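Protein of interest.
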Amino acid sequence: MRILAVANQKGGCGKTTVAVNLASALADRGRRVLLVDLDPQAHATAALGVDPTEIHQNLYDVLTASEDRQVTLDRILIERGENLFLAPSAVFLSAVEQELSGVPGREERLLKAIRGLDQFFRYIILDCPPSLGLLTFNALRAAGEVLVPVEPSSFSLRGIQLLQDSVEILENASGQDLRVYPIANNINLRTRFGRAVLEEIRQRFGERAMKTIIPPSTRVKEAAALGKPLTRFDPSNSATRAFKNLAWEILAQEEEPEIRALEERIESQASPHLVEEGRVLFRFRDPQASTVYVVGEFNNWTPNQEARMEPKGQGLFETRIDLEPGIYQYRFIV
């Protein structure tokens, strides 16, 4: 079982959006996923179509359970689609810190609650509140890894540093080694500022930064308002595709043979990727094809001579196209 916390001290950087849609994308890939809503605002709960005011028991009851009032985590779970389950939150969760004040082991309440769930879930995603209080420390204590959404703001980058400081404090106190992965969220690569923010993330965090970039989309708020993950509300949306890519990136970190084999097959066939600054390589493989064109928004969908791909033998076709940073639709004509 793999446990990932989604956290950043700054609010409004897309923690819940990332947590909900990553959980949904992993579930769509056949992994049983539990999303734990640790935010008293209960945004993740609402984003999955559950009204926090109509729930009889929630995460508050689990974290404040006592010998004479025992509530286990499995008793509050709500199924929200195939392979996707929710541990809901409510406004009462904001009282946890005060209620557990001075209680020994209060930072490990969540860790103890999720023990034994490895036989039911492959992934547990923890949606943290926008603060570094007891709830976030419970998440960091329970998780082995932390995803940190970063949106185009210096304040968001500062939130990463504050979170990193807290992670170091927790590591020193518990001897626990936490892996922190920043992820560029709501980044518009068509703007100079968006590209500058992405460059700063990668310079500061290097290989630790996730390769997936989540683009801005108005459909994110629409999906949340209707209580659906974006991945199920609008499967063809550019942000949906990005969350699916993020799920693949998370899966590939485990070096699963089927994931790596699929990545190699995609790369050898039709996956465009940057080969040098401003130049994108397109590949397509079809042993039966004699002529292949790549057309899209970048050439007005015109299958002219410039769009014709060069045969490389054994059914492989390639071409390189100079493109400005951005998101483009394209297709192959065989």
Observations:
- The chain has a mean pLDDT of 85.
- The chain has two domains: 2-254, 268-333.
- The CA atoms of residues 234 and 240 lie 7 Å apart.
